Known about the structure:
This protein has helices at about 5-10, 15-20, 90-100, 165-170, 210-225, 230-265, 275-295, 300-320, 375-405, 410-415, 425-450, 460-480, 485-495; strands spanning about 35-45, 50-60, 65-75, 80-85, 105, 110-115, 130, 140-145, 150-155, 160, 180-190, 195-200, 205-210, 345, 355. The protein is an alpha+beta fold. The chain folds into two domains: about 35-200, no CATH class; about 205-500, Alpha-Beta Complex (Aminoglycoside 3'-phosphotransferase, Chain: A, domain 2). β3 (about 65-75) and β4 form a beta hairpin. The chain is globular, with a radius of gyration of 24 Å.
Amino acid sequence: MTRxxxxxxxxxxxSRLLQSFQGQRWLSEPSxxxxxxxxxDFVQLPGEASPFVLTLLRVHGSGNRYFVPLRVTLSAGxxxxxxxxxxxxxxxxxxxxxxxxxxxxxTEKQRAxxxxxxxxxxxxxxxxxxxxxxxxxxxxxxxLRHGEERWVCKLYKRLSTDGGNELRALQLLxxxxxxxxxxxxxxxxxxxxxxxxxxxTALVEGEPIYLPLSRHIKALIAQVVAAxxxxxxxxxxxxxxxEPLCRRLGEQLLLFHQRLNQxxxxxxxxxxxxxxxxxxxxxxxxxxxxAVEQDASLPAPLRASVLRQLQRVSNALLxxxxxxxxxxxxxxxxxxxxxxxxxxxxxSEGGAPRLSILxxxxxxxxxxxxxxxxxxxxxxxxxxxxxxxxFAFDEILDGIKDVLGNTQLEATxxxxxxxxxxxxxxxxxxxxLSDWSKGLFGCIERAYxxxxxxxxxxxxxxxxxxxxxxCRLLQELEYNYSYNRGFFKYCDFYYLxxxxxxx
Length: 503
C-alpha cells in the first residue's frame, strides 16, 4: 500500500528522475539537462492506496515548466522509486475518476488543481485505456473506451506561458465539426491564472492525411522509376486525382480560421507587429549560424554553401527595416503548429472527405498580449507548405535510396552534394519532389483563397509569404539541430539552398 508521499521522498529521486528523461523531446533543454531538477509543486491523487503523484517540474535555472504524473513505489524502507506514469492505464483511470467527480485537489503549495469532465458515471463496462503511441513528444495521448463511447485523454508535458490556449480554442470551435469536441480539462491555478495540464476530447474518426498522401506518392514513385521520361505527365495526372482532397482542405482550413477569429473577435483587428517577430527570428538565425559553423559533421563545401545562403536570408529578410515596404497585415489567430499529422481525413456519406484539425495551439487568444500581435493565419498556410515539403522529401528520398541501394541519409547527402551523379530515375524523382509539392500546396492555397467572400479576399504579399516560410524553416532547422535529427537537418538544408528571390 502506498502511503502519503512526502517532498523529501520525491527530492531524494530528483537526479535519477532527470536521468530517466534524457533524450525525450518534450524536455526543452537538450544542452542543459544536467542542471538538476526542481519540484515546484505536487499533489497525490486521492485514495489511501494511490501510487500516483502529479508534479510540476522545472530544470534548474530554466524558464520552462513540465507536468509529469509519477508512479511512486515505496520500498520496505520507505524509499520512493519514481517512474513516469503518463501512459499508465491505472493513472489515467484514477484521473478520469477525479474528473467525473469534478474534484479540486489542493497541492503542497496550497494551490488548486481542477479536474472537470462531462463523462458517464462509473459502472460496467469498465473503462479501457489504450495509449495511441508511447513516444517522446510534448503531449501524451490515450484512447479511453467506456462501452460504445470513446474519448481521447491528452496530457501536456511541456507547459507554455499561454497554457490554456488549446482549451479556449476548442471552446470557440465547439459544434463546428472542424476540431474535436472538448469534454473536460485538468487545470492548475496559481497567482498567475490557470495553466492547462490536460484535456478530454471526443475521439475523431479518420486517419492522418499523410497516409492517403503516402499511398498516392508511393504509387507515383513506382511509375516514375519505371518510366522516368514520363515524369511530368505522370505527376500532373497524380495531382489531378488529389484535387478533391486538396480543395476540401483549403476550404476547411479557411472555415477553421474564420471560426477561431470570429469567436474571439473584440472589435477592430490589431495589426501584425513585424519588429518583434523579426527580433525573435534574428536571434534564432544567430544561434543557427553558429551551430552550422561548428558542425564538424558537415562536408566543408556544404557547410560553406549553407552559411552563404543563411547570410542571404539575413540580408534579404531579417535585416532591420528591410521589409518596411510591406502593406499592413492584420494579426489573426492561427493554429500555431499546423502539419500533416494534425489533419485527420475520413470518408463521409456525401462523398466529400471529412476533415478535422487537431492540437490547436494558437500563440495567444488575448488581443492585449504581445504574443497575439505576432501571429497570422498566413503562418499556418506557409507551415502547411513546409509540412508538405517535409513529407514529400521523406518519401522521395526513401525511393531514391531504394534505387541506389544505400541508406536514406546517405542518399540525402548525395542529393545535396552531387545531384548530377544520380541516375535518371533518381533525377526524375527529384522532379516529382518539386512539382508534386508545389502542385499540391497550390491547389490547397487556391481553394483557401477562393473560399473568401467577394470583397474580403486575403492579399498574400510575396514578401510576407517568403518571410513566414523562411522563419518556419529556421524554426524547424533549430529544432532538428537541438535534437540531432540528422536526416531532417539535411532536408532543411535542401530547401534552404533552393530558396529563390533572396537577391
